[in-house]
C-alpha cells in the first residue's frame, strides 16, 4: 500500500496488515529476546525468562511503524503524533523558534498562537511526522528534566527538540518533541535544509512523551480537548480558518 494514491471517492485498494517495526527498535527487541532465551534455555529460570519474553513483545510493539494515509491539501495541518489532545491554549511560541539564530532565516513571529499538545502514552505509536510539506529550517535540541509530559510546564523544563518547517509560500509552523517520565532520547530523522512531505517521518521519542504544535496566526484547532489523534492523518487545523468547534464526551 505504501505510496499508493487513495481518495474519498473509493479509488485504491487497501488491506489490513501487521505494522512493520522501525529499525531503531529492532535492536532493543532482539536484545530482550536474547536475554529472555538465555534465562529460559540455559539457566532454566522461567520465573524471569517468561516475563522478559513478554517484555520483548512489548518493545517490538512500542516501535511499530504503521503506514498512514496522509491527506494532500496545501491548507491542512496534520497531526505529527499519535495520542491524546491534552492541552489547547493560547501561548507565545518558544524563544528558540522565534529568535534570530544567525542563519538569515526568519523564525516564528511574536504574539500568541494556538498550541495543541498531544500526549503519547507507552501504548501509542511513537514515530513523529511532519505536519506540513516544506523545508526544515531549524532543529534545536535542549537538554532538560524528565517530569510528566502531561504537565503544562513540561514545554519549558523537559528535554525537548524544536522543529521549524517552512512551506513554499513562506508559511512557517513549529512543533516540539518533548521527553517524558520514561523517555530518555529524542531521535531525529531529519536535519536543517531537508525537504519533507506532509506526514513524512521526522523522528521518534523513546518510551512516553508529548508533541506540541504551534498553529499559524489566524488558525484555530480543528481537534477538541480529549480527542485522540493519528499521526499523519488527523487534521489539526486549516491555515487561515477560525471557527469554534464544540463536542461532547460520551
Overall description:
By secondary structure, the chain is of the alpha+beta class. The protein has 2 domains: 20-65; 76-238, Glucose Permease (Domain IIA) (Distorted Sandwich), CATH 2.70.70. It contains 4 helices and 15 strands. It has helices at residues 23-42, 46-62, 95-98, 154-157, and strands spanning 20-21, 64-65, 76-78, 83-91, 113-120, 127-129, 134-142, 160-166, 172-179, 186-188, 195-196, 201-205, 209-214, 228-229, 235-238. The protein has an 8-stranded antiparallel beta sheet. A 3-stranded antiparallel beta sheet has the order 6-12-10, with no helix packed on it. A two-stranded antiparallel ribbon has the order 1-2. Helix 1 (23-42) packs antiparallel against helix 2 (46-62). The chain is globular, with a radius of gyration of 19 Å. The two termini are 34 Å apart. 34% of the residues are buried. The mean pLDDT is 89.
Order of the strands making up the biggest sheet: 11-7-8-9-13-5-4-14
Distance between the termini: 34 Å
Count of discrete structural domains: 2
Radius of gyration: 19 Å
Mean pLDDT: 89
Backbone shape: globular
Number-wise, the strands total 15
* CATH architectural category of the largest domain: Distorted Sandwich
- The amount of helix comes to 10-25%
Low-confidence stretches: none
Q: Main β-sheet: number of strands, strand sense, barrel status?
A: 8 strands, antiparallel
CATH topology of the largest domain: Glucose Permease (Domain IIA)
- Secondary-structure-based class equals alpha+beta
Order of helices and strands: EHHEEEHEEEHEEEEEEEE
Strand content: 25-35%
Q: Can you count the helices?
A: 4
* CATH hierarchy class name of the largest domain: Mainly Beta
Cofactor: pyruvate
Transmembrane segments: 30-63
Protein name: Phosphatidylserine decarboxylase proenzyme
Family: Belongs to the phosphatidylserine decarboxylase family. PSD-A subfamily.
Amino acid at each position: 500500500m505504501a505510496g499508493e494514491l487513495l481518495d474519498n471517492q473509493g479509488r485504491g485498494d487497501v488491506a489490513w496488515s501487521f505494522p512493520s517495526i522501525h529499525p531503531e527498535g529492532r535492536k532493543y527487541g532482539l536484545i530482550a529476546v536474547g536475554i529472555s532465551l538465555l534465562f529460559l534455555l540455559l539457566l532454566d529460570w522461567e520465573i524471569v525468562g517468561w516475563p522478559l519474553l513478554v517484555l520483548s513483545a512489548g518493545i517490538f510493539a512500542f516501535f511499530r511503524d504503521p503506514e498512514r494515509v496522509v491527506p494532500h491539501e496545501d491548507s491542512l495541518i496534520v497531526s505529527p503524533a499519535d495520542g491524546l489532545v491534552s492541552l489547547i491554549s493560547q501561548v507565545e511560541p518558544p524563544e528558540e523558534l522565534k529568535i534570530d539564530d544567525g542563519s538569515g532565516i526568519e523564525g516564528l513571529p511574536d504574539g500568541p498562537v494556538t498550541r495543541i499538545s498531544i500526549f503519547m502514552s507507552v501504548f501509542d505509536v511513537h514515530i513523529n511526522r511532519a505536519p506540513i510539506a516544506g523545508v526544515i529550517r531549524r532543529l534545536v535540541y535542549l537538554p532538560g528534566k524528565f517530569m510528566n509530559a502531561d504537565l503544562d510546564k513540561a514545554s519549558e523544563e523537559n528535554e525537548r527538540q524544536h522543529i521549524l518547517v517552512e512551506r513554499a509560500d513562506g508559511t512557517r509552523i513549529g512543533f516540539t518533541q518533548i521527553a517524558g517520565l520514561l523517555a530518555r532520547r529524542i531521535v531525529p530523522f531529519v536535519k536543517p535544509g531537508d525537504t519533507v512531505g506532509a506526514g513524512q517521518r521526522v523522528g521518534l521519542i523513546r518510551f512516553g512523551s508529548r508533541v506540541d504544535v504551534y498553529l499559524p496566526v489566524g488558525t484555530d484547532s480543528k481537534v477538541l480537548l480529549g480527542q485522540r489523534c493519528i499521526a499523519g492523518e488527523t487534521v489539526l487545523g486549516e491555515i487561515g480558518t477560525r471557527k469554534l468547534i464544540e463536542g461532547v464526551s460520551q
